[in-house]
Design brief:
three-stranded parallel β-sheet, alpha/beta
């Protein structure tokens, strides 16, 4: 997933480690919907702050740690300031949770589809190899 979709990758994929062993997230957020107003974020959860906190990526990882066999590939654009900072936080938490991580930084790009294209070019062979679709 990309951006909000990448945050969903953390939320859904890491909440079901028995189903998803390999995840690709591009420019995920630490706090879902951080690009929205606080009022809008919490309204999505019926203003239930505890329900919102339970689906934050850091909470999901803490709840399911340790992860014995999960690979998380996290891509970000070199010029994507806030999302690069989010990547630092998310990947540190993932490593603490026992997740094998790989960080990919798209040269010269920001929060855009140039980042998505570059990260996919780098990550898809890794995903295919892990899935047994290719060797080497």
């Amino acid at each position: 997933g990309f951006s909000n979709g990448a945050t969903c990758t953390y939320q859904v994929g890491l909440d079901q480690p028995d189903r998803y062993g390999t995840l690709l997230a591009i420019a995920a957020e630490v706090h879902p919907g951080s690009d929205m107003s606080e009022e809008a974020r919490f309204a999505t959860f019926g203003n239930d702050h505890a329900a919102y906190a339970a689906v934050e990526p850091l909470a999901v990882m803490a709840r399911h740690a340790p992860y014995p066999d999960t690979l998380l590939i996290h891509g970000v654009g070199e010029k994507d300031g806030a999302y690069s900072d989010y990547a630092d936080t998310l990947l540190a938490a993932a490593q603490q949770a026992g997740i094998t991580t790989k960080r990919l930084v798209a040269p010269g790009s920001g929060h855009d589809f140039r980042t998505v294209a570059w990260v996919c070019q780098q990550a898809l062979p890794l995903v295919a190899q892990r899935a047994g679709l290719i060797t080497g």
